[in-house]
């Protein structure tokens, strides 16, 4: 927020910019390089995502808080490396749980049980890399001597959604160096006891499209400068 003048609310709430404009669709593309310029956001008829790499999944309503401000999606599975994890992120009877997409949250948070499976999968598949405390960096799982872009065995991370959509997350969006020397790298995913959140770092260099009228969430890799 050091260079920001404020925050634009894009949720379903009545006070958000989306609601006040009365538009049924919007999209944005968040640049991974903050120094490259502004990230575009488009509303109404200007908002669309096209091309052969577009994937879509239904937007959900919380069964209890149907007028809530969040954009829920059905995250049906997570793959780490070649391992498909039996994770579940459904709603409870009280409306707790679920997964939201939120551009206002920096990192991605997974409910404790799902996070524990993801964490263990990375530990098992990176057993030859020394772990270090992530406390100084506010992360949970970190490794030593792993410079950004170095040739280390970092497993791939894939999010799988209802309807068959899959997001192969770019490495820099889930695992990256966190110190100036590049000597410590961390998993940019954290545990939570609340709702799971796909944050903005995991959305970078994606054209993300919310079709509120059609009830769909779509995404595709993009060069944000060309939108």
Q: Mind summarizing the main beta sheet? A: 8 strands, mixed
- Please mark out the parts with pLDDT under 50 across 5 or more consecutive residues, or reply none: none
Please count the beta strands (DSSP E, at least 2 residues each). Answer: 18
Distance between the termini: 24 Å
Order of helical and strand elements: HEEEEEEEEHEEEEEEEEEE
GO cellular component, one term: extracellular region
Protein name: Peptidase A1 domain-containing protein
InterPro entries: Aspartic_peptidase_AS (IPR001969), Pepsin-like_plant (IPR034161), PEPTIDASE_A1 (IPR033121), Peptidase_aspartic_dom_sf (IPR021109), Plant_Aspart_Prot_A1 (IPR051708), TAXi_C (IPR032799), TAXi_N (IPR032861)
Pfam families: TAXi_C, TAXi_N
What does this molecule look like?
By secondary structure, the protein is mostly beta strands. The chain has a single domain, classed as Acid Proteases (Cathepsin D, subunit A, domain 1). It has helices spanning 17-21, 112-125; strands spanning 25-29, 41-43, 55-60, 72-73, 75-80, 83-85, 99-101, 108-111, 131-132, 142-144, 157-161, 166-168, 175-177, 184-187, 189-192, 196-198, 206-211, 216-221. An eight-stranded mixed β-sheet has the order 2-1-17-18-3-4-7-16, with no helix packed on it. Strands 6-5-11-12 form a four-stranded antiparallel β-sheet, covered by helices on one side. A four-stranded antiparallel β-sheet has the order 9-10-14-13, with no helix packed on it. The chain starts with 16 loop residues before the first helix and ends in a 6-residue tail after the last strand. Pfam families: TAXi_C (PF14541), TAXi_N (PF14543). Residues 1-220 form the Peptidase A1 domain. This is Peptidase A1 domain-containing protein. Belongs to the peptidase A1 family.
